[in-house]
Amino acid sequence: MKLFGNKRLLILLLGFICFIALMGLTLGKRERMTWPEKFITDTVSWTQGLFYKPAGYIAGFFEDIGKLHVIFEENKVLKQTLTKYARDTTKLNDLEQQNKRLKEALGFTERQKQAGQYTFRIAEVVALNPDLLNNTVRINLGEKDGIKPNMAVMSVEGLVGRVKQVSSFYSNVQLLKGIDDTNNESKAISVTVKGRENETFGMLESYSKEKQKLIMTKIDPNDKMEVGDVVITSGLGQVFPRGIEIGKVISRDPGNFGISHEAVIEPFASFDHLREVFVVIVPEQG
């Protein structure tokens, strides 16, 4: 009885298999399906849909994770490239500016050499105002380079100051805006007007921090100096060589007691953004 029951089950399964096979063979040849075929097709499709959608979501999730990793790596590379580009651009701009300054400096020294006057040693400013009270900057030339105290220091624009202290490889330069600082034993600068060197005389003795201008004193009331004139070193006093441009006259008024006049001078050189300067070396008189 048990064997017979197993035979009936076997026959039922074989019949179902044959039915499925027959349906598969005839499905492509007929446009219309019978209702059992429709039922089975719909049932299988619905069942597949239950598994396909979650599987699709999971596959899409891992695919998105993979894409995120790729995007992250690409973004990382782009950031590195952008950083390198910005760094290279900054470096290029700095080199272009330095090249421009050095070209101007070279042209300046060549013009002065052609005039047969003085020797110029170019130096880099390595510290801005290391001594704020004394209005000084530090340059990378010292005793080993032939630098001595009281040598004039200038930029391409004009006079900057004088060498104050010298070590073996560095020097401190006192700026013109500290000219009236008695703690620095500053000395007044003898000046004149460009083009009228034998007619005008005066002294630079102080710097107005309020106006950020130099003050020229001891001007003869009959002096023909006027607004717009260019003030230069006179060479008197044997400290600053003659002919270094300092600034432009922007005003002139009677001084104390009316004995002499005073003038306000706008410096040509900027004291706050110095990069390269020149130490003026005057040939020793034999």
TrEMBL record:
InterPro entries: Cell/Rod_1, Cell/Rod_MreC_2, MreC, MreC_beta-barrel_core. This is Cell shape-determining protein MreC. Involved in formation and maintenance of cell shape. One of its GO terms (cellular component) is plasma membrane. The keyword Coiled coil applies. Pfam families: MreC. It comes from Paenibacillus foliorum. One of its GO terms (biological process) is regulation of cell shape. Residues 125-280 form the Rod shape-determining protein MreC beta-barrel core domain. Belongs to the MreC family. Residues 78-112 form a coiled coil. The keyword Coiled coil applies. Keywords: Cell shape, Coiled coil. It comes from the Bacteria. PANTHER family: CELL SHAPE-DETERMINING PROTEIN MREC (PTHR34138).
